[in-house]
Structure formats: C-alpha cells, structure tokens
Design brief:
The complex is a heterodimer of chains A (495) and B (317). Chain A has 14 helices and 22 strands. In chain A, the strands form seven sheets. Chain A has a five-stranded mixed sheet with strand order 13-5-4-19-20. In chain A, helix 3 packs across helix 12. The longest helix of chain A has 25 residues. Chain A is globular and about 70 Å long. Chain A starts with 38 loop residues before the first helix and ends in a 9-residue tail after the last strand. Classes of the chains: A alpha/beta (495), B mainly alpha (317). Chains A and B meet through helix 2, helix 9, strand 7 and strand 9 of A and helix 1, helix 4 and helix 5 of B.
C-alpha cells in the first residue's frame, strides 16, 4: 500500500477549490489550516494518488454491498436494496470534546428517565407547572394506557440515540433525542470494520477508541432488566421482519449478541408469559429488545390491525413477567414539543445546569412566538413534532413562498404539532465527491445505553448530506455516513 | 431453535443446492448438445424435453430460429422472471431465506451468498451467460460449493447446521434420482452397437450432471456402462452425490435433530430409514431396464413424503 506523505502540503490537491461558508469546518480553521487532530489525516490523504483514492472508495462501496449493509425499499419479491453510501474520509473527535459530549449525554438521559418515571406516576413536574399538562396530554406519544405501570429498575429508555449538531462556532447543540427505537448503531459498527480495511495505515496513526464492545454492553443492559432478577434470561430481538428498512441492523445486532431474532409470529402469550415457538416446542422469553413501535406492539392494546405484534404482550409486561426495551410510552420524551423543556427538566430533577446546549426553539402554542414564527418563515426551520426521518419539515431559506404559506396555515391550525428553530448551518466535513474533497454538512448521533449505569459508546454515527449545500442528512433523503473516530487523547501528539 | 428459522435454513440450503444442480445440468446439456449436433437428430428438442422432465417444468416456447444454445432455453432456465424455478429464482429465494436468518448463520456464509447473488445480478456478468455459458454456470456452481465449504468451516454442528444438511442432501438425492429416471428412460433404446459412441457420450453426460464422471472413471475403467452408472449413482456408499449417500446423510442429520424427540413423532425418520434399507438390500433385477423406472419412482415418492413429514413435524412451512 502506498500512502506516501507529500513534503510540502498545500491546499491544492484534493482540496482545490474547497469552499468554506458560514458553517464551522471540522477539518480546517478559517485560514484553511488543518486543525491539530486532523493534521495526520490531511497529510495522508493529500499523499494518496488519485487512482488509489478512487480504488479505496470503490472498496468501501463493494464492502458495504457484499456485507449487505443497507436499507431496503421493497417493490417486488426481490426488492430494491440500496446500500447506504459510506464516505471514506473519517470524522475525528478529540478526547477533550468527547468528554463534554459524554457527560452532557449522561446528564440528559438520566433526566429523561426521571421525567418518564415521574410522568407515568406522580406527575410532580406537571403539578409544579414546569411543563403545561396540556402539552403532555395532547402529545401523540403519551400512553395513558400505561399510567401507574411499574417498569423494571425504573428505566424507561435503555437505548437512546441523540442527534448533535455544531453551530458556526463549533459549539455542540442537541438537535433531538430518539427515545423510541433509535437506529444507526449497526452502521457505526460496520463503518469502522470497513474503514479499518480501507485505510489501515491512517487508522494505525491515531489512537482511536474501539466501538466494538457495543453489542456486549447492550446485552448487559438487556439482561439487567430481566424479570425476577434472573441471571440467565432468554433475550430476543423483536423485528417487524425483512421488509423493514432497518432489518439489516436488527439481524446484525441479534447476531452480534448471539440472541434470537424473532418476528411477532414467532411469539405467543400463554398463562401470562411470553413464549417462542421452537423446533422443540415453546420456550419462555424473558427480555424483548423490541424494534417495533408502540402502535404495532400489541393489537389488543394498541392498533388492532397490527400484524407485526404479539397479542397480549402489553399485559404480560404490566404483570412484570417479561421486560421490554425500550419501555412503552417513551415517545413523549423525544416529542419535539417537549424538547424545549429538557433544560428545565435537568434543573428540576438534578439541580444542575445543562452541559449541552439546545437549539433555540419557538413554540406556536405561545402567542408571541407564533407571530414571530409566521413573520420569519423564510429564515426558520419548521418541524412537525412527531415526524422523523427528515419528513414534515420546512427549511425556510430553501423554501418557496407557496410552501411557506402552506406551513403558515398548518401551524395556525395545529400549533401543538409544530416547532420552529433558527436554521443552524450544520458543520461541514471534507467528503469524497468525484475525485475531489468537498465540504458537506454533517451531524452526529452517539448512542447511549442505560442499565446498571449510563454509558456512551466512544463513537457515533456521523451522517453526511451528500447533495451540495443540503442540510438534510437522513438516509431516506440522500444522506450517507462516515466513520467517526473518538480519540483517546487530543490527537496532537501523533506524528 | 425457532421453527421459522429451521424452515428458512432448510429452504436456503435446498434452493442453493437446486440452483447449483440446475447450473451444472445446463452447462453439461449445452456441451452435450454441441457434441450431438453431428450425430443425432434434433438434439435441441430432445434436450429441452429431458430438461423439462427432470426439472418438472413445462417446456418453454422455443424459438427455433434463434442462434446459440442459450437463446431461448438457457434464458428460460437461468433468468426468466416468470419461471420461479430458474437459477436466479432459486438463488433469490435462497438469499431471501438467508436474510431472514442472518443471525443464525455465520457472517461469512451470508457474505458468500450475497456476493454470488450480486455477481450474477451484474448485467455485465449476466451477459456472459449467452456468450460463454460455461463461465456463468461455473460461477454458480463454485459459489454454491464455496458456501457449503464456508458453512462447514464456520458453523457449529447445532440444530441449524443439521437443518442445512437436511435441505442439501434431500434436494441432492431428489435431483440425482430424477436425472437417472429421465435419462435412463430416454437412453434405453441406444442398444445397437452402432450407437456405442453416442451412448458413451450420453451416459458420460449423465455422470457429469452429478459431477460423478471422474469418480466413476476411477472405479470402473473403460467405456461408460449404463448399468454401472445406475449402480454408481444409486448405491455407492461414499460418493457424496449418490442417492444412498445423500439419504444416509439426511437420516444422520435427522437423528441428530431428533435426539430427544418422541418415538411416535418420528415419521420422517421412519420413511427415510425404509428408503435406505430398500437401497441397501436392493435385488439386482430391480435395477434391470424393465423394472428400474418403477423402482426409482417408488424412491422418489417416498423421499418427497419424508420431506413433507419433516415439515409438518417441525411446523416448517
């Protein structure tokens, strides 16, 4: 392998015409000098002959295809399988930055779990008027069926994926939490496997912290919540099946944890226990890592037309005979209408100041904020509170007058269903585009696990918006991903 | 093990074996057709007929004017989307089944199967099927063999592995039986000494369709003798594609799965055991031209019944 280093680095080579706009650039400072922790990567990439770089890029694409890493859009029996493109240029986070992110995320998830416990029991936070009860009861994901139910170890959100972005100054901001069935961790893990093969020599130069322990840590969490403290519980992962867009992740995690990947039809409720159908008859199930939304989980409790769930499951859960991760009704914690109140929750439950800042948020339910939103639709991002995946959004600066008018009507009609935020120019990162490196916007999704204690895997999924200038990083909207290197130090000592 | 998983492993293995078999059969048949053009009348029609009987599929509408062996027939048995039993159809289903149980097979197995699928899906590579069919069919066969090798090298000998073996060997026995039955029926008229070279060619092709030519040659030197071919493919104790070997392996896999099952529930086991003893203790005259078809038909029928019994026993499909 020829990764020769050029003697005299210039901003030519792959970075010819590299443009910085108002967004923060992950690799370069404003004078186009590589930041210290990017220095080695920068040199190495510049030293790579174009043909070689192209070959490495092709190698990443091929690996992703052959491993079957991707999401699926099914039309016919064969289906259309799209590989989620991975950019070969890694994103690097120095230890000092990670430390802040990590403690901020631990603080946040601790709070959200306290909030959910409070909400489904005593509701002190509503009585103390920190949050308007109407916001809760009008929220689409509050499950009143679940009031007063005791959940194992009082943990509601065991697996959380929180999206972070960086503003113009490089400050990390929380964009949203994903407290229901966050996905993407399998890409974090496979990206690393692929990148280590594609750029072994560059990887070797950095002290990158390993992410590979995630499946084992997840299994520990799942075992920790087993009913009756069973030390050797049967844990399964419940998937909607191969037609689900995240099926790759479901099977990947089940395989890495060595647990059964089950579908609703494999499970049956009998004598207030959950069983799975095996070649040797029924076998008791203790813990279910479910990747099916609340709505489809149990046709007897939620949507009666669901074919994916298990009739009677919720009742067994309430009786404490099976554990679910995540718990039911956690969606109210990542409701975008509740999001602006998380800093207040942190102060209320922990008596601490939030470590990670949030994005300034305007709520149409407040009269004065509604008029501000309507007057500034061309500058703000308007989001539907219960949508994800980049759907149901208006990006003001990129929208037409007709779209703005449409959203103005919707916001006036259903103020609880929307929030508005200033357009944050997500930080940009060099990304391989047609033989050149160009700046593309990125976000960051670390994964947080809550079992005996709260842990954050030292790594994350970096999603990148591949179309030039796009701020939408979702896989369904032309996004790709990057391997994310969390360093054991600040990356300055490496040579 | 989940019943659904057992089912998927069984069919993954069966469909892949079927695709491999089909590829080899087509490869051998097209070679044979080229050889026969000089010596036999209407070889393409004969070929189409025997393929459709072996594969239990209707004869495709053949375009008589098309050039090259693959013009109609090859496409029909290889790619034709409306023919679910074509090679790509089998492979697609093998892969679908594997996708549903990725957690129960090794990642290396999945990778090989997925690689094969995408290789054959690649339009550039697929176009080779008409220009150089051998390359294409070879790729299918190698892909399947590689998968089986990786499977044996990476999988624990647990219940899942046993279901994979069951799928593989039951399919293989079934296909060997069908080839023998059909080809014997078609070739039994080649008794005239004048037909000897032709007979030799045809029977060698039968052996090649089961990758048994070399093994046969090492056992019996000289011209290919129809009676010996039948004996070899039916009764050989250790050739991995003989019917007896396949069924004994199936029975072993079944025994491992049923180690602690109720004696009364073992219907598949009983059926297989009886077929095996019929093979072991076969009378010589049962293999004679007049009675062979009946004998083979009986075997095929019971193999199918064993497979059905197996599926209801384990609540497979």
């Amino acid at each position: 392998m020829s990764e020769t280093v050029l003697d005299a680095p210039t901003v030519n080579g792959y970075f010819k015409g590299y443009a910085q706009r108002e967004a923060y650039d992950e690799m370069f400072d404003r004078d186009m000098r590589p930041r210290p922790h990017y220095e080695v990567l920068y040199q190495r990439l510049q030293g790579l002959p174009p043909e070689e770089f192209r070959r490495r890029k092709a190698m990443t694409d091929l690996s992703m295809l052959q491993e079957g890493v991707g999401f699926t859009v099914y039309r016919q029996e064969e289906g259309i399988e799209r590989v989620w493109p991975m950019d070969p240029v890694p994103r690097i986070i120095p230890a000092s930055e990670w430390k802040i992110i990590e403690s901020g995320l631990v603080q946040r998830l601790t709070t959200l779990n306290l909030f959910l416990k409070d909400l489904y029991h005593d509701q002190f936070i509503l009585r103390d008027r920190i949050i308007d009860p109407r916001l809760i009861y009008e929220g689409g994901y509050f499950r009143r069926e679940f009031m007063g139910a005791k959940v194992p170890r009082d943990i509601y959100v065991h697996i959380c994926g929180t999206d972070l972005i960086r503003d113009e100054n490089g400050q990390y901001l929380v964009l949203e939490d994903n407290c229901r069935t966050p996905s993407g961790v399998s890409y974090m893990l496979t990206n690393r496997q692929v990148l280590k093969r594609v750029f072994p020599l560059i990887f070797e130069q950095y002290g990158v912290r390993a992410t590979d322990d995630y499946p084992a840590a997840l299994l520990d969490v799942l075992k920790y919540i087993a009913p009756r403290g069973n030390p050797d519980p049967t844990v399964v992962l419940l998937t909607p099946g191969i037609y689900n867009s995240a099926y790759f992740e479901h099977s990947y995690l089940a395989m890495r944890m060595g647990i059964n990947l089950v579908e609703g039809r494999d499970l049956v409720v009998d004598q207030n226990c959950v069983w799975m159908r095996t070649t040797r008859g029924l076998r008791r199930v203790d813990v279910i890592y479910r990747r099916i939304d609340d709505d489809f989980l149990d046709p007897l409790t939620f949507r009666s037309d669901s074919m994916l769930g298990v009739p009677g499951l919720v009742n067994v859960y309430r009786a404490g005979q099976v554990a679910l991760a995540n718990s039911i009704g956690t969606g109210i914690a990542d409701d975008k209408g509740i999001y602006p109140f998380v800093p207040d929750m942190i102060r209320y439950y922990l008596k601490q100041e939030p470590i990670l800042a949030s994005v300034e948020t305007f709520r149409p339910v407040v009269k004065s904020q509604l008029s501000h939103i309507l007057a500034n639709l061309d500058k703000l991002v308007v989001k539907t509170v219960n949508e994800s995946g980049g759907y149901g959004m208006l990006i003001g600066p990129a929208s037409t007058a007709a779209q703005q008018a449409e959203f103005a009507d919707k916001v006036r009609a259903h103020p609880r269903d929307f929030i508005a935020q200033p357009t944050v120019p997500l930080s940009q990162h060099p990304t391989y585009v047609d033989g050149q490196l160009e700046g593309r916007h990125v976000d960051l999704r670390p994964f947080i696990l809550c079992g005996e204690k709260i842990t954050v895997v030292p790594g994350a999924l970096t999603r990148v918006a591949l179309p030039r200038g796009s701020l939408v990083v979702n896989s369904s909207q032309g996004g790709g991903s990057k391997d994310t290197w969390v360093l054991a130090d600040d990356g300055e000592k490496v040579s | 093990m989940l019943s659904r998983v057992a089912d998927a492993l069984f069919w993954m293995s069966r469909y892949l074996e079927r695709a491999e078999h089909l590829a080899r059969l087509l490869d051998v048949s097209f070679h044979l057709e080229l050889d026969l053009r000089g010596v036999s009348a209407r070889p393409a029609e004969q070929l189409a007929h025997s393929l459709s009987v072996i594969l239990q599929q209707p004869t495709p509408e053949l375009n008589g004017h098309a050039s090259g062996p693959l013009a109609g027939l090859g496409h029909w048995f290889t790619f034709e989307a409306s023919n679910p039993a074509c090679i790509m159809g089998c492979l697609t289903r093998a892969r679908m089944n594997a996708r549903g149980v990725r957690g129960n097979i090794s990642s290396a197995m999945w990778r090989e199967l997925n690689k094969l699928y995408w290789q054959l899906k690649d339009p550039e590579f697929a176009s080779r099927a008409s220009e150089s069919p051998h390359d294409f069919y070879q790729a299918v066969e190698c892909g399947s063999l590689l998968f089986q090798g990786v499977c044996d090298a990476t999988m624990t000998r647990d219940e899942g592995w046993q279901f994979i073996q069951l799928g593989k060997y039951l399919e293989r026995a079934d296909k060997t039986l069908r080839i023998l039955d059909v080809r014997y029926h078609m070739l039994q008229n080649l008794q005239n000494p004048m037909d000897l070279p032709l007979s030799n060619l045809q029977w060698a092709a039968v052996l090649r369709s089961c990758r048994a030519y070399e093994a046969y040659q090492r056992t019996y030197v000289g011209r290919v003798d129809p009676e010996r071919v039948v004996e070899f493919l039916l009764l050989h104790e250790s050739f991995p594609r003989s019917v007896r070997f396949c069924l004994e392996q199936s029975a072993r896999a079944l025994a491992a799965i049923e180690a602690d099952a109720d004696q009364n529930a073992r219907q598949a086991d009983r059926l297989l055991g009886r077929v095996i003893s019929d093979l072991k203790f076969v009378e010589h005259d049962q293999l004679q031209p007049g009675r062979l078809h009946e004998f083979l038909g009986g075997l095929l029928d019971r193999c199918t019944r064993a497979s059905v019994a197996l599926q209801s026993q384990y609540a497979l499909r």
